[in-house]
Design a protein that fits this description.
Layout: H1 14-17, H2 19-27, E1 35-39, E2 48-54, E3 57-63, E4 69-73, E5 87-89, E6 93-94, E7 101-102, E8 108-110, E9 129-135, E10 138-142, H3 150-153, H4 157-164, E11 171-181, H5 185-192, H6 198-201, H7 203-208, E12 216-220, E13 223-228, E14 250-255, E15 259-264, E16 268-278, E17 281-291, H8 297-325, H9 347-361
Antiparallel strand pairs: 1-10, 2-3, 2-5, 3-4, 4-9, 6-7, 7-8, 9-10, 11-17, 12-13, 13-14, 14-15, 15-16, 16-17
Length: 362
Amino acid sequence: MTATPDPVRSLDARYYTDPAIYADEMQGLFARTWLFAGHASQLEKPGDYFAFELAGESLFCVKGHDSEIRTFYNVCQHRAHRMVEGSGSSKVLVCPYHAWTYELTGGLRAGPNIKSVEGFDRSKICLTGVRTEIFLGFIFVNLDPDAAPMDEWFPNARAELESYVPNWADLKPLEWVEIPENCNWKVSVENYSECYHCSLNHPTFATGVIKPETYDIQPQGKCLRHTTECNSLDQMTYDIQSGFENNEKYSSWFLWPMFSFQVYPGNLLNTYHWRPIDADHVVVWRGWYSIGGEENAVVRQMAVQDRETTVEEDIHLVESVQRGLKSRGYVPGPLVVDPCNGVNSEHSILHLQRWMREAVHG
C-alpha cells in the first residue's frame, strides 16, 4: 500500500522574523538577482544621474553622452568618498573630496596634481560598474557580474508585456507612492502572489476588475505569471476602451524577488516594487504610468481606487501575519496545493517558498 505523502508546510516563522536570515538575504539574494533601480525617464539627457541604495550598497545610474545608461558603485576610486547624492546632471562626474573627475563612462579623466606621481596610469582607474539592463523602459541592475540576462531569468515576459502594453515607450511615471508595511518583505510578496484571499478581502478588485474563479498563477522561469478573465465589462469601475489589443484583460508578471508589472483592463500599466528596510519592515513603491507622465483621468481614478481598496486592505493583512509569525503559538500549516491549480490553490506559494529557502541555503 502506497503511503500518502505529507502535505508541504509553509516556511518556519524564523524565515520572516530572524534578523540573521535577513542579513543572509542582503549579502546573497539581493546581491545576485535583478533588482529595480528606476525608470529611464529619470535620465532624459546625457549627464543626468540618480543615486539609490541596494543590498547595503550605494549605487548610481547615469546617462552617457552615447545615450547608454550605466550603473556604478557610488564610491570614488581615490579615497572612497561618495561620488554623488540624490539626483542631478553633470557633464562629468566630480568627487567632492579631492575633485578627481571621471567621464560618464566611468574612466578617470583628471585629478589635481596626479601628473606629479611617477608611473600614474590614468587609463587603469575607473569607477566600478554594475550589470544594467533596460527592460521596457525600466532600469534593472544585478551586482553579480556573471548573472544570466533578464530574458533567461524571465522567459517570454518581455514579449508578453509588449503585447499588453504596446505603448510602453511613451509611458512615464504619473505617480510613485511609497507605502510602508510593518512586515517582512516576503510576507508582502507572498500575499501579492496568491489570490486565495481575494474574494474575502478585496471586494472591489474581485467584482470590479477580475473574475476570481478564473484566476491562476504559474511559474515562468523566475517569473510568476498571473492570468485571469475580467469581470463583466458592464461591471467595470472605469472606462477600459484603450484601442489596443488585450484591453479587456488583467495580467501580472512578478519578477523574483521584488518587482511586479501589472496591467489592468484598458492596458493600464502599474508596478509594485518592494524595498526591504529590515526583517520587520518593507516599503512598497506603487507606480502608475501614463503617456508622457501627464495627468490622465482614468489612470488617476484607478490609482486612487487601488490605494483606497486593495492596497489598504493588504496592509492590514500582511501586518497581522507578521504579528502572528512572532507568536509562540504559530505552527506552520500545510499549503493548500490543488493539483488542478486555480484561485483556491497555493501552488504559487509552493514555488515562491522554494526560491526563498534556496536563497538562504543555496
